[in-house]
Specification:
This protein is α/β, with parallel strands linked by helices. The chain has 15 helices and eight strands. Helix 7 links the parallel strand 4 and strand 5. The chain starts with 12 loop residues before the first helix and ends in a 14-residue tail after the last helix.
């Protein structure tokens, strides 16, 4: 008789076998197949590598989904693919009828539209259409809107992309996106490529921090220059770009054969501001007898985006007041909101502070009224605003002025210092309320000397 025990093989296998042999215990050794060296190599080296690559690809795909189609290296996650928004025919929804106050800029772009419609008219005589047009202007003047209007009028595909979309942390990605963008555009020509904020990639290479360098931005710019040199303009691929910093662009980008045409998009004049207000007011319910001319006069120096915001603020105010149409008072209050901010109804001033602010603002108004070279005063208020102003005096010119004389500038400085002078005369002391006045007066005085040559001591010398 014998007893059969079944057990697992513990870690100390050799000791167990030796103990069994010493006491005459019969046992059966487990089957151990021979281990292949190839299998050992694959398990030890190949499998971990495959797992790491797979995990990396999953991570890049996750980043791609989160970032809207970008991520990875090389071809992984479509990194080198241009992330341009494509508007096909008529899908921009914008025409020149939606753009007001930019008549000169629209005239400059009409020729580009005509070329896209009738290229043979230009090629027959041997003329070459500009490969690119650069829209230059302050923020909010309507550069992007103009580009979309060109595509809407031409009824061609419109590729829209921002300069920042080309820049990535991986070297060569921006250049790859430029190549892809032009390749896609050439397939559907005639079309328009619009690059917004081109100064992001088009900065001058002369002042490199490391003496030139070979960073991602410069590679992207070099590829853009090469693509604009390489494509045939007769196919009807037009490149539009927009910037508010033309002074930082690389000279190679502005030479003939690339961005040949520079189209200024200026701040609108009086007639332009009125036209812009009317365009944005088309979708808003208005009361009868709205005077857009008065609002246009009160918004000298405002951009198209600011004027659109004024209309929207007026509509919001009408809703807050429980009315179903925008009134003239809504528009006037919205002008003040955009210029000086909302009213601070919870701001509490002492009686003494109210008297100081009142005399300060009347000081501005009196100095303005007693001079012949200043704009008439239209409103004085001591209601605090969210911009930090405790009150202000509004002056509105009847017409836009492009040139200012030395006497007019001195009158402006006098009006700005009138508030501080009133405080000194009435109270015998000064406060911090004139800080913004002093800042503006100093800026004007410095410009008169360093830019306008209006100083008798220094004469006509540009010292800025």
């Amino acid at each position: 008789n014998y007893t059969l025990f079944t057990t697992i093989i513990p870690d100390a296998t050799e000791k167990l076998i030796t103990l069994c042999d010493e006491h005459g215990v019969t046992y059966t050794k487990p089957y151990q197949p021979p281990v292949s060296p190839i299998l050992t190599f694959m398990v030890s080296y190949i499998l971990p590598t495959v797992l790491m690559v797979g995990a990396f690809m999953l991570l890049m795909n996750f980043i791609t989904k989160k970032s809207g189609g970008m991520g990875g290296i090389g071809g992984i996650g479509n990194v080198g693919k241009a992330n341009a928004k494509v508007y096909m025919e008529k899908s921009t929804g914008v025409t020149f009828a939606d753009v007001a106050g930019q008549d000169e800029a629209k005239e400059s772009l009409v020729e580009i539209i005509d070329f896209l419609h009738n290229p043979e008219k230009y090629t027959a005589i041997g003329a070459k259409i500009p490969k690119g047009a650069l829209l230059v202007g302050s923020p909010g003047t309507g550069k992007t809107l103009l580009a979309k209007a060109v595509a809407g009028e031409a009824k061609v595909p419109f590729f829209s992309i921002s300069g920042s979309d080309f820049v990535e942390m991986f070297i060569g990605v921006g250049a790859s996106r430029v190549r892809d963008l032009f390749a896609e555009a050439s397939k559907v020509a005639p079309c328009i490529i619009f690059i917004d904020e081109i100064d992001t990639i088009g900065k001058s290479r002369d002042g490199g921090r490391y003496g030139g360098g070979n960073d991602e931005r410069e590679q992207t710019l070099n590829q853009l220059l090469a693509e604009m040199d390489g494509f045939d303009p007769s196919k009807g691929v037009i490149v539009l770009a927009a910037t508010n910093r033309p002074e930082v662009l690389d000279k190679a980008l502005l030479r003939p054969g690339r961005f040949d045409r520079r189209i200024p998009v200026e701040l609108p004049d009086l007639a332009g501001r009125e036209a812009i207000l009317r365009v944005h007011a088309r979708q808003v319910k208005l009361e009868k007898r709205i005077d857009f001319t008065a609002i246009a006069r009160a918004t000298s120096g405002a951009s198209g985006a600011e004027l659109a915001n004024i209309i929207n603020e007026a509509a919001l105010r009408a809703v807050r007041e429980g009315r179903n149409a925008v009134s003239q008072s809504d528009l006037e209050e919205s002008v003040e909101t955009v210029i000086a901010g909302y009213q601070r109804k919870n701001a509490v001033l002492s009686e003494h502070e109210k008297r100081v602010v009142s005399y300060h603002e009347v000081g501005h108004a009196l100095v303005a009224a007693l001079q012949s070279n200043t704009a008439p005063v239209t409103k004085i208020t001591i209601v605090p605003r969210t911009s930090g102003a405790l009150g202000y005096t509004m002056q509105v010119d009847q017409d836009d002025k492009k040139l200012l004389t030395r006497e007019e500038l001195l009158s402006k400085i006098a009006v700005l210092t009138g508030g501080r002078a009133a405080e000194e005369v009435v109270f015998g002391q000064v406060t911090t309320g004139a800080s913004n006045d002093i800042e503006q007066a100093t800026k004007l005085a410095r410009a008169m000397i360093t830019r306008y040559g209006m100083s008798d001591e220094f004469g006509m010398v540009a010292m800025e």
